[in-house]
Amino acid sequence: MDTTSSCEGFSLFLLFLQLIILPLVSASTDTINSTQRISDGETLVSSGGTFELGFFSPGNSTNRYVGIWYMNLTGTIIVWVANREVPITNTTGVFLTVTEPGILVLINDNNNRTIWSSNTSRTVQNPIAQLLDSGNLVLRDASDDRPENFLWQSFDYPTDTILPGMRIGWNFVTGLEVYLRSWRNNDDPAPGEFRYHLDPTGYPQILLERGSVPQNRVGPWNGIQFSGTMDAREDPTYFMSFVMNEKELYYMIPSNNRSPLSRFSLYHNGVMQNLTWVDGRGWVVYVNVPADICDTYGLCGANGICNVGNSPSCGCLDRFVPRDPEGWFRADWTNGCVRRTNLSCGGDVFRRYSGIKLPDVRFSWHNTSMTLQECRAECLRNCSCTAYTQLDISRRSGCLIWYEDLIDIRSVSPNGQDIYIRMASSESDSERMNRKLLIASLTSVIGVVLISLSLFLCILKRKKNDLKMRGGLYDGSQPKESDLPLFDLSTISKATNNFSINNKLGEGGFGPVYKGILEGGQEIAVKRSSKDSMQGRDEFKNEVVFIAKLQHRNLVRLLGCCIQGEESMLIYEYMPNNSLDVILFDETKSMLLDWEKRFHIINGVARGLLYLHQDSRLRIIHRDLKASNVLLDSDMNPKISDFGIARRFVGNETQAKTRRVVGTYGYMAPEYVVDGLFSVKSDVFSFGVLVLEIVWTLYKEDRPLDLVDASLGNLFHFSEVVRSIHVGLLCVQKNPEDRPSMSTVVMMLGNEGVLLPQPKQPGFFTERDVLAAHTATSTNAANSTNEMTITMLEGR
Ligand SMILES: *[C@@H]1O[C@H](CO)[C@@H](O)[C@H](O)[C@H]1NC(C)=O
Ligand SMILES: *[C@@H]1O[C@H](CO)[C@@H](O)[C@H](O)[C@H]1NC(C)=O
Ligand SMILES: *[C@@H]1O[C@H](CO)[C@@H](O)[C@H](O)[C@H]1NC(C)=O
Ligand SMILES: *[C@@H]1O[C@H](CO)[C@@H](O)[C@H](O)[C@H]1NC(C)=O
Ligand SMILES: *[C@@H]1O[C@H](CO)[C@@H](O)[C@H](O)[C@H]1NC(C)=O
Ligand SMILES: *[C@@H]1O[C@H](CO)[C@@H](O)[C@H](O)[C@H]1NC(C)=O
Ligand SMILES: *[C@@H]1O[C@H](CO)[C@@H](O)[C@H](O)[C@H]1NC(C)=O
Ligand SMILES: *[C@@H]1O[C@H](CO)[C@@H](O)[C@H](O)[C@H]1NC(C)=O
Ligand SMILES: *[C@@H]1O[C@H](CO)[C@@H](O)[C@H](O)[C@H]1NC(C)=O
Ligand SMILES: *[C@@H]1O[C@H](CO)[C@@H](O)[C@H](O)[C@H]1NC(C)=O
User: Does residue 445 sit within a domain?
Assistant: First the structure.
């Protein structure tokens, strides 16, 4: 038998039927039966004119698909695709029709192949397909339009869009799951990477998964809404029904003829949006997920809590501490948090946490009739129970219990829920009262310290602005030119736009500082020695000798120098974040300096100083450590700079005496100011002042209690602040021998366990009132940003 010719004959016959006998389906039809068909170019239109079904090509693709879209709206929004996995390249002879026993088929007449079909488990007399005004394409018997008797409906097989009336979830009887699967990309509706579904494991919650990895989670149903979503009660137009029984589990946005066009779409890149059509404005986005960083599943690790209002967003739940503090400090939150005090099982207590989105419930247990008291007892009974809460907050009943670490919690106050987390008895409320008292007393102690400190620092600041000391430079060993790269004057001149005023960054210790860009694009800072300053010349040499030989990530790096005729210049790496004082003493800028950054700076300066004192090839005393000599790179890493008056110690030398006191008031140790004695311990004093300044400026912006609570986020920070103040006070003790060495300081800052000695009297106020004793030339007090650190002072 010649199948080809019989095939052709059949096609011709069908074509004949189509053209002559069958009435062409007009745009006003919403239904087809077994004798009608839809070919490319023809469409079905729902009775109200809202939706249209037909052939389309997505994006820039030329492939043809059968799909449903909004009829009259500008811009074609495809809400459903039939043959998403089987594109049609040539629609000649391809049509959609209804056949026995009640299925919709997309047939290619040329080869008699079914491209796509719906399915059914039942048979009816007179099957028809109808596009409803809800956007649902249904197969049913012509004489029975009851939804429960539909043979098939597109709402059970959505692609990437939820329409009102669609039930997202499970039919446990048939085993059918209704879920969204993103398109592969804008041009290809084939199933993509993302799946949005109602996960029934443990207790139902919505998961957005990429492959099998959760990306985003909508919390469990709490009787009113999914935990962590916008409060349904706040938006009367937003109503969601949730059904859970032995037969089915689903949620649905009910449709209603008067409600505006609305859809929920999962895009190929994993973004989800709820959009509503507003005449004159087009599609308006109501909900956008992910809305913020805290929408990232499990961002803060086990027992972490995400709060977009905080910086960084991740914190540990109260009474929990980072499992890996080092990593946590680097914003690597994957290891999460652990209980500060381990559970003992017997005698544990519960602590309530409010305003949260409930954690992942995939490994939870629940009972719909238990009371909260029974729930608590149930949790206590099992040592592996970690937390419990009320299942249904609208009926105030039910019990939900977690047995594992708590994952993916975020702060969603005011719409959040309560959860009761198991704690060791030592964390109980009565213990808490004691702790509260402790914290309160600690706070007041810190308050007193800070108030006296602030008084001191105010004095310091005022004095600093109008009284700067200048002694001679240390008359040490003759600095010899090192093997530092030499730059050409013309190169530097070009890089700085011929030392343009626009390139000037400020005044350094021995002259102006310019920003420049070398030919290769490298940014540099150029310190230019004042021609007429002998002092500048000496400091220049001092700096070259010292800094060229030093290499540490907390010391500013000298790239080279330029000595030509009268000109002598130093070329440094450029520090985009300026010096610490600029940020610290500027009200708006200092707000950006959160505690973690501050602690990072304190630690960096400590390590830089430790290197100078003990680990470098030379043993160096900086003699002028202060906020303006700490530069910050793009990552806010601190770099100690300005070695113009640094002094090298040789052999067993530990202390030296100078007739000429050099440095900056307030940062100078009393024995140095008064007797000209300097040693590593005078640098330690300056470091102590710097630490206290850094903490103080943090304190200044907040109320003292915030220091303990909100601004610092957690007790982990709190203990760091307390430790820093303590170390700062140890460093500014009056007696140099009492002050710790920098190696001790670094250890004390880095280890929580180290027991710190009680600080003795600080050396702020010396017996001889040196501040009053000196008369000085005053410099422009307003120029504090790039202040000249050292100015002439006659005397002593
Ligand atoms: C096409 O398929 C139908 C149903 O399977 C069959 O009855 C018919 O003979 C086929 N036609 C051709 C031309 O192969
Ligand atoms: C299909 O619908 C058309 C138009 O309404 C009608 O004329 C035809 O009889 C129907 N065919 C069947 C098999 O019901
Ligand atoms: C769509 O447009 C057609 C023709 O312009 C119009 O008759 C119909 O009422 C419109 N439908 C809706 C829902 O606006
Ligand atoms: C189609 O291709 C053009 C040019 O490549 C691009 O700008 C446009 O965004 C594409 N449109 C879609 C829907 O992908
Ligand atoms: C589509 O298929 C028909 C019939 O097989 C053929 O005549 C036509 O040339 C094809 N069109 C294209 C664009 O390939
Ligand atoms: C219909 O097809 C889907 C997927 O192709 C399948 O999962 C489902 O079990 C089928 N239903 C019936 C009633 O055959
Ligand atoms: C989208 O949000 C609006 C406003 O909250 C709501 O009325 C509508 O039902 C939502 N639609 C979907 C499909 O979620
Ligand atoms: C707490 O428990 C963990 C794991 O069981 C253990 O590694 C850790 O040492 C315990 N901590 C204390 C302080 O007992
Ligand atoms: C739920 O709790 C109630 C009251 O304690 C109890 O009677 C019932 O058996 C529990 N149901 C399940 C499924 O555990
Ligand atoms: C405690 O709960 C876990 C997890 O549900 C279960 O495996 C274990 O058997 C329970 N233990 C007791 C003593 O009930």
Answer: no
- Ligand 3 atom 5, closest CA: 72
> Where residue 641 falls among pLDDT bands split at 50, 70, 90?
confident
Kindly state whether residues 263 and 407 are assigned to the same domain: no
Please tell me which residue in 624, 702, 738, 769 is annotated as part of the active site: 624
Domain enclosing residue 218, as ranges: 158-291
Residue 70 lies in a domain: yes
Residue nearest ligand 5's atom 8 by CA: 92
Structure tokens at 762: 């600080």
Name the residue with the closest Cα to ligand 2, atom 14: 33
**Model confidence over 392-442: pLDDT tens digits?**
988 899 999 999 899 999 998 767 899 999 999 887 665 455 455 445 545
Ligand (nearest to CA of 93): 5
CATH number at residue 495: 3.30.200.20
Active site residue 624: yes
- Both tokens of 100, joined, read 């026995």
Residue 765 identity? F
Q: Determine if ligand 9 sits within 6 Å of the CB of residue 373.
A: no
CATH code for position 769: 1.10.510.10
Give pLDDT tens digits for 597-625: 888 899 999 989 988 888 776 788 888 89
Domain count, the chain: 5
My answer on whether 396 and 508 are in the same domain is no
How would you list the strands of the sheet with 282-289, edge to edge? 161-162, 262-266, 272-278, 282-289
pLDDT, tens digit, 9 for 90 and up, residues 265-319: 999 999 999 999 988 888 999 888 898 899 999 999 999 999 988 888 999 999 9
Could you check whether the bond before residue 101 is cis, i.e. omega within 30 degrees of 0? yes
- For residue 299, the domain's CATH number is 3.50.4.10
Exposed (0-12), middle (13-18) or buried (19+): which is 160, by Cβ within 10 Å?
A: buried
Closest C-alpha to 194, from 178, 225, 216, 221: 216
Shared-domain flag, residues 412 and 489: no
The 10 Å Cβ neighbour count of residue 325 is 12
pLDDT band (50, 70, 90) for residue 247:
very high
Ligand nearest the Cα of residue 111 is 1
Please list the residues that pair with 337 across neighbouring strands: 322
Interval between CA 2 and ligand 5 midpoint (Å): 22
**97 and 187 co-located in one domain:** no
Q: How far is the CA of 367 from the centre of ligand 9 (A)?
A: 6
Give the pLDDT score at 470.
30
Same-domain status, 321 and 263: no
* 106: CATH: 2.90.10.10
Q: Is residue 494 part of a domain?
A: yes
